[in-house]
Amino acid sequence: MTRHDASRIADIIEAIDAIRSHLTKGDLGDGLVYDAVRVRLIEIGEAVKAISPELLETEASIPWSAIARMRDQLAHRYFDTDHAVVEDVVAMSWDRSWPRSGRSWTASPTTREWGRARP
């Protein structure tokens, strides 16, 4: 793993921790919490886009391209983003031990929602 990749992974972990912290202050029904979480999801997607393809290939079970699409949706089409999609993403369980232990993050079946707006 390059220094750049390690830095982006650290950014992702920091954003996940921030999302957890925001959710202790309220739920996604609170506009400020929702906006704070949405910004951190954008940061995660941006970090994913900057990770080397070689590292992404080592964790093929993670829907990297869907995470990047979710970032694009949240950043550029925020008025078209269904609140439930953000709720589904936040409901995912993430194992922070990756990549230190070589294991991947685990996610619920809601990973299919990354990057897809609902009609």
Head-to-tail CA distance between termini: 39 Å
Helix-residue proportion: 55-70%
The fraction of residues in strands falls at under 5%
What structural category characterises the helix and strand content? mainly alpha
How many domains? The number is 1
Q: Which geometry do the CA atoms define?
A: globular
Q: Please, how many helices?
A: 5
Secondary structure: elements and pairs:
Elements: H1 3-24, H2 31-50, H3 53-58, H4 64-76, H5 83-90
Descriptive report:
The model is unreliable at 95-119 (pLDDT under 50). The chain is globular, with a radius of gyration of 14 Å. Helices cover 58% and strands 0% of the residues. The N and C termini lie far apart (39 Å). The chain contains five helices and no strands. The chain has 119 residues and is an all-alpha fold. It has helices at 3-24, 31-50, 53-58, 64-76, 83-90. It has one domain (3-113).
Brief characterization of the structure:
With 119 residues, this protein is mainly alpha-helical. It is 58% helix and 0% strand.
Defining traits:
119 residues, mainly alpha, globular
